[in-house]
Design brief:
With 219 residues, the protein is of the alpha/beta class. It contains eight helices and seven strands. The structure holds uridine 5'-triphosphate (UTP).
Length: 219
């Protein structure tokens, strides 16, 4: 099975945790072809806000974010015994490297979106069987669970329902979005089977092995 994992930068902050991700990814790569797209986390956000205060344009801010996501990719790759130490800068390069390596880690590609969308595009490009959005919440909710007590977690959604939910949340300033709207639209147009879940190392293993956690998106 070919799987693309979007791994939020906030999940990659400690050596011990990075080692756990590496162990799980190596174990899974014995049976599956794995692609990981790493996010930028707090470091990217802080540097982007610093650059913005200094007058940088949004596209330059995005470029700073992309560089940080690539540094995170190199850090995770360093923890893997058999993954390329050259981080692919495009989907073409990632696919080429996947012919040699069972795990390929990359960061962002071009300005204008987050690594959720990069990972969704990569899933489209390599025709992945499964797209995993390993994030800091345990699934998709009807409303922001940090704000509303009535928020209900969905076990399952169609691609179209996901786009509707993300569109509503994105419209509110400052709301935390479980997946980037562009990523939701990409998985919708290509009907890519997706799971959005709390991205602990153990959960990645469980999801790939078919255990039901998080929210499954299927049409
Ligand atoms: P992230 O994917 O880390 O954004 O990319 P995020 O929303 O902060 O995600 P988490 O918190 O890690 O899950 C960091 C920034 O890099 C730029 C964007 O500005 C994004 O906000 N970026 C990243 C791009 O412009 N293009 C890419 O392909 C990837």
């Amino acid at each position: 099975m070919k799987t693309v994992i979007s791994l939020g930068g906030s999940l990659l902050q400690k050596v011990d945790i990075i080692k756990k991700y590496a162990d799980v990814l190596e174990e899974l790569s014995k049976m599956h072809k794995i692609f990981v797209v790493t996010g930028g986390g707090k470091v990217a956000r802080d540097l982007i806000s610093m650059a913005r205060s200094l007058g940088a344009s949004e596209v330059v801010c995005d470029t700073i974010g992309i560089e940080i996501t690539r540094i995170n990719a190199l850090i995770l790759s360093s923890a893997l015994k058999n993954a390329p130490k050259k981080i692919p800068r495009s989907f073409e390069e990632a696919e080429e490297l996947s012919k040699i390596y069972d795990i390929v880690v990359m960061g962002g590609t071009f300005p204008g979106h987050t690594t959720d969308a990069t990972a969704a595009l990569l899933a489209e490009y390599v025709k992945a069987d499964l797209f995993l959005n390993a994030t800091s919440v345990d699934g998709v909710y009807s409303e922001d669970p940090k704000v509303s007590k009535n928020a209900k977690k969905f076990e399952k959604l169609t691609h179209q329902q996901l786009v509707e939910i993300v569109s509503k949340t994105t419209a509110k300033a400052g709301a935390s979005v479980v997946i980037d709207l562009l990523a939701a639209k990409i998985i919708e147009r290509s009907k890519i089977k997706t799971v959005i879940f709390l991205g602990d190392p153990e959960n990645i293993k469980k999801v790939i092995e078919g255990e039901k956690i998080g929210t499954l998106i299927e049409s």
